[in-house]
Amino acid sequence: MTTNNYPRRRFLQHSVLGTVLAAFPEFLLANDSKIKSRATLGFNADVEVDFTAQSAFVPVFSGGTQTQVQKFYASIRKGPENTLQTLPDNYLGPILHLQKGQKVRVYFTNKLSEPTIIHWHGLHVPQFSDGHPMYTINQGEQYIYEFEVLNRAGTSFYHSHAHELTAEQVYRGLAGLIVVSDTDEKKLELPRGEYDLPLVIQDRNFTANNQLQYLQSMPQRMMGFLGDHILVNGKPNAEFKVKSRAYRFRAVNGSNSRIYKLGWEDGTPLLAIGTDAGLLASPEQKPYIMLAPGERVDLWLDFSHRELGSKLVMYSLAFSGVMPTMYEHMFNHRNDENRGMHMQHSLAQGSQFPIATFTIIEKVGDSPALPEKLVPFQRLSIGAVDNVDTPIPIALSMQHMTPTLNGKTFSMDRVLDVERVALGSYKKISIFHDQQHVHGGMGMMRRRQSTDDNVQNRGGMGGMGGMGGMGGMGGMGGMMEMAHPIHLHGQQFQIIKRHTSDVNESAYNSVKYGFIENGWKDTVLVMPGEKVDIIKPFQDFKGLFLYHCHNLEHEDLGMMRQFLIS
Ligand code: C2O
Ligand code: CU
Questions:
Q1: Residue 451: its H or E element
Q2: What is the 3-class SS of 364-410, one letter each residue?
Q3: Which ligand has the nearest atom to the CA of 397?
Q4: What is the C-alpha to C-alpha distance for residues 177 and 441, in angstroms, rounded to an integer?
Q5: Strand order, beta sheet including 196-204
Q6: How confident is the model over 213-263, as pLDDT tens digits?
Q7: Residues around the ion ligand 2 (C-beta < 5 A)
Q8: For the whole model, what pTM was predicted?
Q9: Measured between alpha carbons, how far is 154 from 530 in angstroms, rounded to an integer?
Q10: Total Cβ atoms within 10 A of residue 371
C-alpha cells in the first residue's frame, strides 16, 4: 500500500555528502547498529509489553467502508493492568501508561510488508531504545527495547521513525500516546481517570471510499502534507460529552505538518499546566496556544460554571507567516495557474476551523481547583553551559528544493564536528534560518515568480520593500523561509530566548502570544526570521541521538541530523 522503492531509498541515505563530514569510528557503528533481538540478562523489567505494527481496517467514519491503516497493537506480558489503554475502532495505537522509575521492556514485531521502527518521542532513553532509523526492522523481525522511565510526569507519544518512511507511516496510523506519571504529580489534585483525556490532533485526506490519501507532489512534500479533515483521537468531527467540572486535556499535535493555534470559540483563555514532557511550575494563561507537529500541551479546562446542554468549541484560529512569504502570496491569489501547480489546499495552513466540540451533559459539584503551584522546576541559567560564545548551530535552509540542517541532509553514519558533544555537558544551541544556503532552492521559485505576472503586478512579491523584516536577510532568501518545528531526541531542553528582530512583524503578531517558553521542551517552532536559543543537557547516555524537523515531510526529505554524545 505504500512505496515499494525503499531499496533505492535506503541506498540514497548512504550517499557521501562532502568532505567536511567526519565518519565516526568504524567500531562504533559496527557495535551500535545491530538490531537488538535479545533481552538483556540482569535488566529486570517491571513492565513487559508486546508491540506489533500491522496493516488493519478500522472504522474511521461511522458509516461506509472501513479505512485501511497501519496500526500499532500491544498486549501486556508483565506489569500493571492499566499499562495499556486501547482506543476503540481506532488507527492510533493504545495509550501507554508508565510510571517514573519503571523498567520497561518492549518486544516489537514488524508485521508490515515494509521496514519500520518505533521511537518513544519525549522519553529519555538509551540510543538502542530510541528508535534510531539504523535499527529499522523488516517484516517478521523483532526489536527489543529496554529502558527505565527517567521522565517526570507528562505527555509524550510514540511513532514510526523509519527513515524516508516516517511521514507516510505516521500518516497511515503508526502513532500512539504515552502518559507518564510520578509522585510529584500524584500529590496534586489534578483531574484523573475519565477527566483526563487525550486530544491527539491530526489532519488527513480521504478518498470518496474512506481511504487515506497521502499526497506526493514535490511542492506538497516541500511544504508538508496538509489534509482537509481534522481528526481528534482518530475520529473526524470530534465531540466530547463532559461534566460541569475541571478536565485535563493532553493535546498532542500528531499531524505531519499542520500547525494549530488552539483557542476556545468564546475567547475563554487557555490554561496550560504542562508542555512537551512535563508539568509546568505553575499554570500559564494564554489567549491561544501554538501547537506545532511533535509538540504537546496539557490544558486545564473547567466547565464548572457552564450550563447544562451548552457547547464549547475548540478552534484552530487564523494565523499567518509560517509558510514561505512567496508561497503565501501565490496561495492567496487564487488564479488558475496556481491551482494547476497543486499548491492549493482546501484547508490552508493558518486558516480557521473547528477542532472539537465539548457538550456539558451533566452537572456535578466535585471539581478540583486549579493548583497555584504544580511541580518544582529549575530554570537553567546560561552559566550552566560550557559554550556560551560558541553555540551549536542548527541552521535551517532550503537548498535545491531540499530542506537541510547546517547545509546537510541526513546521513546514517556521519556526524559533523559541531555534532560531537561530551557526555554530561550542557550546551547552548542556536536554531536559526541560514541565509547562505537558500540560493539553490530559489531557482525554481524565481522562475515561477517571473511567469506569474498577476502576482507581480499586484506588488505582492515583487515589492521587496514591502516585506516587513526582510531587511538584512540577503535578498530573496527570506522568501523561502518557513516555520520549522525542530525536535531534539534525548533529554528535554529549555528555551532561553527567541530573537525576533528579523521576523515579519505583522505575521509574527498573529502567533507570538501562543508560545510557552517555560518548562521543558523537546520540540520548538522556529518562525521565519526567528532565531531561538535553547539550553540542552546531554546526560546519562552516550551514542547517537537525532535532531530533526518534525514537519514529517521535511524529516523524510533529509532535514535530520544526529549528535554523537561521547
Ligand atoms: Cu517525534 Cu525523531 O521524532
Ligand atoms: Cu521543516
A1: helix 439-451
A2: CCCCCCCCCCCCCCCCCCHHHCCCCCCCEEEEEEEECCEEEECCECC
A3: 2
A4: 36
A5: 235-236, 229-232, 196-204, 246-253, 296-302, 270-275, 278-286
A6: 997 678 888 999 999 999 999 999 999 999 999 999 999 999 999 999 999
A7: 484, 549, 551, 554
A8: 0.88
A9: 28
A10: 16
